[in-house]
Amino acid sequence: AVIVEAEGADGTRYAAYTAILVFDPLSSGNLTNTWTGGAGSNSMPTGTNWSAGNSSWTTLVQSGTENATETRQLLIFNRASANGQFQISTTNMPNNPSVLGLRFVAASSGSPFNLTGSKRIYVGPMGIINLDSVQHFTNVAQLYTNGSQIWDAAGGPLLIGNTTHTLIRLGARGSSAPRFIPESSVLTITGNHNVTINGRIEGNGAIIKEGNGTLFLNNSTNSWSDSDWPWTPAALHETLRIHRGTVQMGSNATLANTTRVFIAQHPTATWALNDRPLVIANLNGGGTLDLANASLTLTHDFVLNSSNNSTIGMYVAPTNFRGRIQGGVSGNVVLTTRAGSQNLTTTLSGNSTFLGRVQVMSGNLIIGHSNALGAAGAGNETEVPNGPVVILNGNGMNIPETLSHNAANTVALINQRG
Fold it and tell me: Is-contact 185 147, C-beta < 8 A?
């Protein structure tokens, strides 16, 4: 994966671009296998349903392992030449297939494909690409990313999994791989059309949002993080990075409380919450946070566990968010910030319009814009229920915000100019 960013003089990252460099196997026929439905059945392991014929699974299936690469193939799906076989099942396969990737090519006729079944598919570096104009479905029981890759809704939407049984796992790695090979992987979601992920996302790695489409995260048990965080490149320290387009949380969707979110300073980069409160480690960048009807808590601490679930250590993650915060509900606590174990600072510097109350539970709060704390008036106060807390007005601005605190707490208000 290649990540390029622009960084301001103050160290804040603004715009970003992600690319994964892979070869295109379409130029080599022995690396592709096209679904023909020639057997007249929807069974994926039937060799005569594929262009490679009866020998197809000799090269397609890798004995159920996840790190074999030498004979995997790119699976091609074309609606116009599928012999009416669009519901394709993995259930009768002898092993979990390991493939270079899945590609839905443009077609003028035929129904959308729906990949189903109880077997796991390991998807390699070619990822999942929809070049077609209709939405295709991948509803297999488990979908593992075998290394960093791109899921691209270039021609039409993609729907991945359902909320009841589909598992998407980042950072799948063979058990025989050396420990110095990271268990993490980068999953980049891109394209001008929407990608909906209903299944649970777990494992180790980062999700990066590119392109103008919207990524919908709908599962209530998402838990992915990055147990290799101390050894991965600094640019990947956030586990959810929004470079372009919107990441929309479903009404019941959650994230792990170890999640670090980065929203690039790009006019389309938006993280949209929904109804469910979220607790994450930190928030950085300069894009847009839309609270909608939810609340967000920043803990600034996160514990990482290794692959065998032993604790690696406690890490700290400060917040420096220069973007716009909007949405919220007046009277509700919509943003809570805690100092964490090392008394970290929260910096808010955007021209925000959100409604609702801000709670500063501990630590320092730096205000970098007169509207950084959102709307003024009743129901939109800044509260300090505990303490001690230092609130620093970095530019000596006139901030139309009501401060509410317990008289027993220590609150230092400091105005700085120059």
Answer: yes
Burial of 397 (0-12, 13-18, 19+ CB in 10 A): middle
Would you put residue 286 in left (φ > 0), alpha (ψ -120 to 50) or beta?
Answer: alpha
**Neighbouring residues of 130: CB distance < 8 A, sequence distance ≥ 6:** 104, 136, 152, 153, 154, 155, 156, 157, 158, 191, 193
Give the whole-angstrom CA distance, residue 211 versus residue 150.
11
Residue 143 has pLDDT above 50, yes or no: yes
CA distance linking residue 331 with residue 413, whole number of Å: 23
Find, among 90, 78, 73, 72, the residue nearest to 38 by Cα. Answer: 78
pLDDT at 205 over 70: yes
Alpha helices, H only, 9-144: 56-60
Cα 243 to Cα 159, 198, 262, 337, distances in angstroms: 21, 21, 8, 24
**Nearest residue to 367 via CA among 399, 339, 342, 341:** 399
Return d(Cα 302, Cα 202) in angstroms, integer.
Answer: 16
* pLDDT at position 54: 58
End-to-end CA distance of the chain: 42
- Sheet containing strand 296-298, edge to edge, reads 278-280, 296-298, 333-337, 357-360, 382-384, 403-405
Neighbouring residues of 221: CB distance < 8 A, sequence distance ≥ 6: 200, 254
Given the structure tokens 């991945």, which residue do they identify? 160
0.85 cut: is pTM over it? yes
58: which residues sit within 8 A by CB, 6+ positions away?
none
**305: burial class by Cβ within 10 Å (0-12, 13-18, 19+)?**
middle
Q: What is the pLDDT of residue 57?
A: 54
For residues 2 and 251, give the distance between their C-alpha atoms in angstroms, rounded to a whole number.
Answer: 33
Chain Cα centroid distance, residue 278: 15
Residue 63, exposed/middle/buried by CB under 10 A (0-12, 13-18, 19+)? exposed
d(CA 211, CA 213): 6
| pLDDT value of residue 47 | 80
DSSP string, 130-180: E-SSS-EEE--SEEEE-SSEEEE-SSS-EEE--TTT-EEEES---TTS-TT
309 Ramachandran zone, left/alpha/beta (phi>0; psi -120 to 50): left
Closest CA to 188 of 363, 385, 1, 386: 1
> CA 377 from chain center: how many Å?
35
